[in-house]
Specification:
- The complex is a heterodimer of chains A (114) and B (116).
- Chain A is an all-beta fold and 114 residues long.
- Helix content of chain A is 0%, strand content 51%.
- In chain A, the strands form three sheets. In chain A, strands 2, 5, 6, 10, 11 and 12 form a six-stranded mixed sheet that branches. A four-stranded antiparallel sheet of chain A has the order 3-9-8-7, with no helix packed on it.
- With 116 residues, chain B is an all-beta fold.
- Helix content of chain B is 0%, strand content 54%.
- In chain B, a hairpin with a 2-residue loop joins strand 5 (43-50) and strand 6 (53-57).
- The termini of chain B are far apart.
- The chains are: A mainly beta (114), B mainly beta (116).
């Protein structure tokens, strides 16, 4: 079965600074990878996803993520953070076996200082 | 024009009561899900329906019963509510094709259930 780890529970950045949120997965083959964002009191919104092909994936809201098979990672990045990016971010991994239902990480809370 | 809508948004009830949460999607998706998010934000799949048929039924107490009258609606009925049922319940939908869950979900805004 697949698993996903988000090592950072909280990340604090200043507005305008760059951001990288870490995600590591465990799965024997090429996984399907996702990043979701959850604003307070809201549901999750899909930022981007990776299935195959180009390992650098562009998403909405200026986010991108890079799949690195050698490191089993799918880190989320943004060059310049805005105060409105403060939210909970979830990485998810789905596997081409069984039900494909994605497994979600525990989330990283992003705090943005003015 | 909400894509996935859940009602109610908040639900406070006493132990032992029976309650329902409703979900509707207007995206034309063929698969719908219920997820439970606990106080530590952990998301766990509960059920999934594809074209009104139950396809995923995780280890959930049988006090929880989903029902899908058509592929645009998925309701969740909970009997004999317990304190541990307090959580945020999310409905989600997706268009599956050959990869269940593989194309990403559209989530509703959640129902915060508090059992007192």
């Amino acid at each position: 079965a697949q698993s996903v780890t988000q090592p950072d529970i909280h990340i604090t950045v200043s507005e305008g600074a760059s951001l990288e949120l870490r995600c590591n997965y465990s799965y024997g083959a090429t996984p399907y990878l996702f990043w979701y964002v959850q604003s307070p009191g809201q549901g999750l919104q899909l930022l981007l996803k990776y299935f195959s092909g180009d390992t650098l994936v562009q998403g909405i809201k200026g986010f991108e993520a890079e799949f690195k098979r050698s490191q089993s990672s799918f880190n989320l990045r943004k060059p310049s953070v805005h105060w409105s990016d403060a939210a909970e971010y979830f990485c998810a991994v789905g596997a081409a076996g069984g039900s494909y239902i994605p497994t979600f990480g525990r989330g990283t809370s992003l705090i943005v200082h003015p | 024009d909400t894509a996935v809508s859940q009602t109610p948004k908040y639900l406070v009830t006493q132990m032992g009561n029976d309650k329902s949460i409703k979900c509707e999607q207007n995206l034309g998706h063929d698969t719908m899900y219920w997820y439970k998010q606990d106080s530590k934000k952990f998301l766990k799949i509960m059920f999934s329906y594809n074209n009104k048929e139950l396809i995923i039924n995780e280890t959930v107490p049988n006090r929880f019963s989903p029902k899908s009258p058509d592929k645009a609606h998925l309701n969740l009925h909970i009997n004999s509510l317990e304190l541990g049922d307090s959580a945020v319940y999310f409905c989600a939908s997706s268009q599956e094709g050959t990869v269940l869950g593989g194309y990403g979900y559209t989530f509703g805004s959640g129902t915060r259930l508090t059992v007192v």
